[in-house]
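pasting input
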Amino acid sequence: MHPFAYTRVSDVATAVEEVASDPGSEFLAGGTTEVDMLRVGVARPRRVVDINALPISRIEEGDGGVRLGGLARMSDVAAHPVVRERYPVLAQALEKGASPQLRNMATIGGNLMQRVRCAYFRDGGAACNKRVPGSGCAAVGGVNRGHAVLGTSEHCIAAHPSDAAVALTALDAVVRLRGPDGERSVPVDDFFLLPGDTPEREHPVGHGELITAVDVPPVPAARTSVYLKVRDRESYEFALASAAVVLRVEDGMVAEARIGLGGVATKPWRAREAEGALVGAPAEGASYELAAVREMQGAVPRGMNAFKVELAERTVVRALHMAAERQGGAR
Amino acid sequence: MSTVPQETRAAQTGRPMDRADARAKVTGAARYSAEYAPPGTVHAVLVGAEIAAGEVTGIDAQEALRSDGVLAVLSHLNLPPLAAEPHLLPSLAGASASGQSFFPMRDARVHYAGQPVAMVVADTLERAGHAASLLRIGYRGEPHVTTLEEGREHSYEPERIFAGFMPGRMGRGDVEAGLAEADVVVDAVHRMSANHHNPIETAAATAHWEDGRLTVHDSTQGPTATRLTVAELLGIPPSQVRVVATAVGGSFGSKAMIWAHPTLAAMAARHVRAPVKLSVTREQMFTACGHREEQEQRITVGARRDGTLTAIRHHKLSPTSPFDDWAEPSLEMPARMYACPNHEGVYRLFRANTMTPAFMRAPGEASGMFALETAMDELASQLGIDPVDLRLRNHSDTDPTSGLPWSSKGLRECYERGAQMFGWHDRDPVPGTRTDGHWLVGTGMASAVYPVYQAMNPQRARVRLHADGRAVAETACAEFGTGVGAVMRQVAAAALGIDAEQVEARYGDTDLPTTVAAVGSAGSGAISAAVHTAATALREQMVERAVADPDSPLHGADPARVEVAGGRMFVRDGGGESYTDLLRRHMMFDAEALGSWDPPGSDAGFAAATFGAQFAEVGVDPDLGLVRVRRMLGVFAPGRVLNAKTARSQLMGGMLWGLGHALLEATRMDPDSGRWANASMGDYLLPVNADAPEVRVEFAEVEDRMVNPLGVKGVGEVGVVGASAAIANAVHHATGRRFRDLPITVEAVLGRG
């Protein structure tokens, strides 16, 4: 482990100031990714600024929506009655992520900022453009069973690991940031960048900008939403494919569809092609399949992850059926 | 021989009893090898080679040596020479037991990625790790071979495998003729991924020199093996090496052999003149303690229309290291499973840039029986014979390889009890007929078998009885989660006629009487025999003292008629007295006896193995590629069960291990770099609690009078064997599709594997 200094702060302004003024400083929240990164030598800050004491961990009910403090713990968000009632897709995504111990530590802001699970990214001996820009991508021709098929480039194919962010993407959540120049908001879909030829750049965030909250807007149809996660084992594993689905059916036709995809893309993936194909179509298997296939048309498989194209399609179809059933049951 | 009535003994042995170390381990009080810190302890970290083949061209340690707290950087440039060549020998032999015929940092050559090329010693672990990252190591890479595809063309037939213990080729009868006689032939190729053990406690050693005497706290299955290996490599008398392993956090074979790190810790400690702690990281566990090799098995099984087997041809291809001819013995037990007159087993190896593979729970039996039992299931389908019935038709009352009688078997009862408990006979044999929502549901079964290995030298224990009525049983053996501590208490208690709660077990220290490494499921047999022998000798000593004592109510009694129970010696319908009374009257605070048991040799005139039957029910979601196990049942005949609780736990753990073997466990090689690509617990998948179905373990009782005094055949590994085949056969029953490669992945079920 590279030596580093440690500071603890208790208010947001100081936290932002401490990090913004020092290129070698980084925020430390729950630490569930950051400490790993320190251990394997991928993160090499001069100093970490512990922000766990900042007063930004509340979960507040808004006008039909909810505001999640940047330091709200995954377990607290998943257990919150408003979240469970209005956004079951988010509660389910959170509960299917990590383990209870990790969820008790990990924060919502940290969840959005977590680093990819690509083994080559974490292995200092391997080529990785995200870790060392220009060094190449060992995953493209390597062991890439878990890697992305959507949103990739020749420079990086690492899948984004978050479940919660997939649900938040489907819900059009907004990330609130506080930086040295004040506050601003970024829609969650814009908060994640595609790797392109700069895979080292993952978010449109300046150094020292801090996630103070994530606002989830009112989405009435989300009350019957569904998160389906497909993985090798039953628990404690990242998704091979996952789908967050909000579906509203009226008179047998799809009136509203919001779909997020996880495990198959380089960012939490908003499946707009599939949504476009669904709205106005009959709420039935044939429409779901057509929509799923259309979304995955742009997929680029690379060897071991070829199965993910079909798996993602089937995951979307199954999740749409589940959401339709839930809505039917809720009526 | 015995003066203890069977029912008294049964009251102590056999009953469920908590592990001796349970509370200490779950409360964190247990101290593991890396948790000992003699005054002045410093830390060593290993640096592994980044290339898979070639040589180290230079090590620039200047920056590392300038780093805070750094005491030394050791490498091939300055590591002192060894006193002896490391020589691969299974630890069951009771001698020095290097895991491979190679010791790192003796020259510049790199044989495999992760091979230690440098060791940094510093005052804290963090500083040692940081300094290690500052080393600038130059390499000259050469082409490497790490996968079956790369090595297939260069394979050879070894004369012997498994450290010389087994022949590279075996056979009986005429396989060609047997296959020609067959009405049905199944011919299939099975591919199985490499596996790594990954116990919770990573390997670690703390070494401490004091007046020329070395103490090593080592995480090992065999403290004696560590002592003999380290002493031999360093050229010091074994009597000057003490090895302590009081708490070991799991092993599964990864600590069955003695790898380089305890010796390296001792070398580093000598170099810096301070105690040194060397802990292997989780990532390094993938290149430090062996593994189950990737392998391909081709099996050809012929049978007559009535199901009688006519021939089995079983060939295996697998990578070994540049220095040893190692293959796990996959072909041995499948050759001995069924009455089949014609058999041929052939191993082929190729030299690969990996370390020497090692024992991994049911080494060979798990993989070989997967191939055989999958083929048997296929044969049953083709012949239209029930899978249990097919196996019964080929049951062998003697060992088909040697012709010797089995010491005990019990397999028919395992099949029958299992089939009845599982509800096997209600099964519709037609695949793909049962559904539950999105799930296709299927059931499968397989045979289980694991040999009874014997130690090759005397096994010793000491039992001491205190005048306060309490006793202590001692052996050098390690308790790494098997329950041997509880078993020692129970066996000593049974022989002395006292409660097991009154007995303390001491173990994990070479200062205690010598036992062999607890490997090959032989631990409970060897250790119970030693403790039983010692406790019986102590009892006889007490009885003899009593009958010779004019003040004893037992004076003049025939020792053979004296019974013991409840801490008392007595004759039926007569008088008696307690051990306490006798000892106090004789001014003795305690009494003790050593026991030494000589295991039967290989010429003892019988064959021995533990048999069982495995049943599994799975659900398969064919759209999403998911396989989930719904229930498992294993019925085993392990001879005497010394502790129903720990034996059941061992077997259950084995069956869940088989679940991982079937569905999850795979170490994946990156062919470009020659490095394991998923060397972490996040990427190497093991079953978690949510994957564990209802698992039932049942015993079929058999009495074995041959293997050891208590008739114990071992439960550590047989639970694994056949479990993966039962699951794969159930997947076939659910889907109608045959999966021959392990693990059975999502992509395989989707048909995209």
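fyi The mean pLDDT of chain A is 97.
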